[in-house]
Amino acid sequence: MLVGGGNTRVSASDKFVTECFGGKAVSDNPQVLVVDDDAGIRDLLADYLAKQGMSVATARDGREMDERLAAFQPDLIVMDLMMPGEDGLALTRRVKSARDVPVIMLSARGEDIDRIVGLEVGADDYLAKPFNPRELLARIRAVLRRGNAAARPDAEGGEVVRFGPFALDLAAQSLARDGAEIALTQAEFTLLKLFVEHPNRALSRDQIMDWLKGYERDPFDRSIDVRVTRLRKKLEDDPANPVYIRTVWGQGYLFSPKGKAV
User: Fold this and answer.
1) Contacts of 123 (CB under 8 A, 6+ apart)
2) Minimum mean pLDDT among 87-101, 118-132, 185-199: which range?
3) In the chain, N or C: fewer CB atoms in 10 Å?
């Protein structure tokens, strides 16, 4: 089956999940947002990826993408390049300025300049149309593996999370930068642990309070903001312009293991 080649045809074998990669399902139910103005491609990819164990939302343009992002926290976005209004390049640039979510760009033109510009504005991978959906699936898995590796527990100890120059020892409840220990209060450690367990996702103040405290929220409680400020002073080279614990306006705080600046 080739997608995006004019008449998209689905063979009988392509309808079965078990024939893709030996029947291996995608783990942890990754959430994917497909942005494409072609309804046929949107529907086909949504159905195909859902059969691989993914949660899929779709959008036909930038306006619908914004609506989905307001209610849906994707692990990855599949973005078409050529769309009316804001094109895929503009949308990718805008998304990347607000959140650390990987983007795979699709283009019917397949020209080198499109691929280069797409990568320059922040796309993590690029696929020319027409394409086999199994290749897209492989690329999605590869991009997600790269992103998850940034905050994966250390292979030897199993309790150490590394990001940038930092190592967070979950068992010892200690943080070190290039081997030099950084003093953390219990409250600071607990908050940082929560962030590293939910990388690249905007967490609202209410969500953080629910997870950390487990009791009824006080809308005037600013303790989370105070803790974030203190953590930034210990993690960031420039706390006023954070790259690890970023503020996503209207959504909350986002931990970026790669230390990616806005």
Assistant:
1) 79, 92, 103, 104, 105
2) 118-132
3) C
Instruction: Please calculate the CA angle 44-53-255 and round it to the nearest 5 degrees.
Output: 105
* Domains along the sequence of the chain with CATH: 13-149 (3.40.50.2300), 160-255 (1.10.10.10)
Whether the per-residue pLDDT at 43 is higher than 90: the answer is: yes
Query: Whole-angstrom Cα distance, residue 185 to residue 241?
Result: 23
Q: 112: which residues sit within 8 A by CB, 6+ positions away?
A: none
* Residue 22 DSSP one-character state: G
DSSP string, 79-145: EES--SSS-HHHHHHHHHHH----EEEEESS--HHHHHHHHHTT-SEEEESSB-HHHHHHHHHHHHH
What is the 8-class DSSP label of residue 250?
A: T
**Structure token pair of residue 27:** 């783990």
CA distance 209 to 182: 24
Q: Going by C-beta distance under 8 Å and a sequence separation of 6 or more, which residues neighbour residue 166?
A: 175, 176, 177, 235
